[in-house]
Write a structure and sequence with these properties.
alpha+beta, three-stranded antiparallel sheet, two-stranded antiparallel ribbon, 5 helices, 7 strands, about 30% helix, globular, peptide-methionine (S)-S-oxide reductase, Met_Sox_Rdtase_MsrA_sf, EC 1.8.4.11, Prot_kinase_dom, peptide-methionine (S)-S-oxide reductase activity
């Protein structure tokens, strides 16, 4: 259960937002199972993922019996999170707005070798608005287009994932 703190939004807008999130189906996006709205409290219900957050696995509060992530697992996690975010943005026109390792949850995963080792938690206070609404609400932010070279794709490298460039 995720309690949304300091979220001031009208019921109609919140319901519309939950409807939009309810339409998202992707392996790397954790679905909202239920929600509660009142003036003073807003709650979201997600599946329980016993492996916890990527932050905990990276920064030492892993719990007993859990080993740190090796570099290959970190790469798979980063790519999986990126796939989930890309799906939200490109297919559903949703912007997360609060991407951080504590919002990435690790799934107990039999097929981690396939590179799909995590789910992405969808909400932190005040995040996840439509792309159009986000551009309208942020003064000074220009809408940009992302271009791809036709036929040019490469497998991401460690340098790509760590922010050093494009491979």
């Amino acid at each position: 259960v995720k309690r949304l703190k300091d979220v001031a939004v009208a019921r109609r807008e919140f319901d519309a937002h939950m409807d939009a999130l309810g339409k998202v189906e992707h392996r790397n996006v954790l679905p909202v199972r239920a929600y509660y709205f009142s003036k003073d409290e807003k709650l979201l219900v997600f599946d329980y993922l016993p492996n916890g957050s990527l932050s905990a696995m990276l920064h030492g509060s892993r719990g007993s019996g859990k080993t740190p992530l090796d570099w290959d697992a970190r790469m798979r996690s980063a790519l999986s999170a990126a796939r989930g975010l890309a799906h939200l943005h490109m297919v559903h026109s949703l912007v997360h707005g609060n991407v951080k390792s504590s919002n990435v949850l690790l799934r107990p995963d039999a097929d981690a070798a396939a590179g799909e080792g995590l789910e992405l938690a969808q909400f932190a206070a005040g995040c996840f608005w439509s792309v159009e609404l986000t551009y309208q609400r942020l003064p000074g932010v220009a809408r940009t287009e992302v271009g791809y070279s036709q036929g040019h794709r490469h497998e991401p490298t460690y340098r790509d994932v760590c922010g050093g460039g494009t491979g």
